[in-house]
Amino acid sequence: MHLDDTERGRRHALLRAHLDAENVGNISVVKRLSRSTPATKIASLLLAAAFTAVTLSEARTETRTDIVGRWATQGFGSIVEIAPCREAPESMCGSILWLWEANDKSGRPRTDGNNPDRTLSRRPLIGVEILRNLRETEPGVLTGGTVYNPDDGRTYSGEIHLKTGTLELRGCALIVFCQTQTWYRPEDLIAAIEAID
């Protein structure tokens, strides 16, 4: 896919707006500016950016401190902030910081509507803790915690593997049914976009 300078600049500005925002409210600029771009173009760009980001990252051993910060989820549907858990600082937790589609079809903030606990189903998705109590068991590997999936309202056993500039998140139900996602740093996606001709 070849982008002209105007389109490349606009896409760079979208991602830069996210990284430069002082608070999450400013992130809505990304969604507003992107409405005119078809979803397939965005998906193609993000896929190309993801592959390029891997080649731009330095090879090294990842550690617990390397996981701290913001991560763009697979498909860039959300950004999750990972930090030491409040109640157990030796473990890592992660909360939704930003959503690509922050509002539902009626224009209201998206809620945790699939949560089986009706007292939680009306809470806004932004701020929901989806990674809980992951502990580093070896360099670059965090296990023993859980992953909450707001798309189906279920909680799975969780495991994270930090690889060269990426986070590989694996969630399993009954150890048999597992799904893996690869997350990237938002700034790596920007670097990859800047490298695209």
What does this protein structure show overall?
It contains five helices and eight strands. It has an eight-stranded antiparallel β-sheet. 28% of the residues lie in helices and 32% in strands. The protein has 197 residues and is of the alpha+beta class. The protein has a single domain, classed as Lipocalin (Beta Barrel). β2 (78-84) and β3 (92-99) form a beta hairpin. The protein has helices spanning 5-20, 28-34, 39-56, 64-67, 186-195; strands at residues 69-72, 78-84, 92-99, 129-138, 141-149, 154-163, 166-173, 177-184. α1 runs antiparallel to α2 (28-34), α1 (5-20) runs antiparallel to α5 (186-195) and α3 (39-56) packs across α5 (186-195). The model is unreliable at 21-41 and 43-63 (pLDDT under 50). It starts with a helix and ends with a helix.
Provide a compact summary of the structure:
With 197 residues, the protein is an alpha+beta fold. The chain is 28% helix and 32% strand.
Query: Which structural class do you get from the secondary structure elements?
Result: alpha+beta
Q: Taking strands numbered 1, 2, ... along the chain, how are they ordered across the largest sheet?
A: 1-2-3-4-5-6-7-8
Order of helices and strands: HHHHEEEEEEEEH
Unreliable parts: 21-41, 43-63
Mind summarizing the main beta sheet? 8 strands, antiparallel
Report the portion of residues in β strands: 25-35%
Distance between the termini: 9 Å
Could you tell me the CATH topology label. Answer: Lipocalin
CATH architecture: Beta Barrel
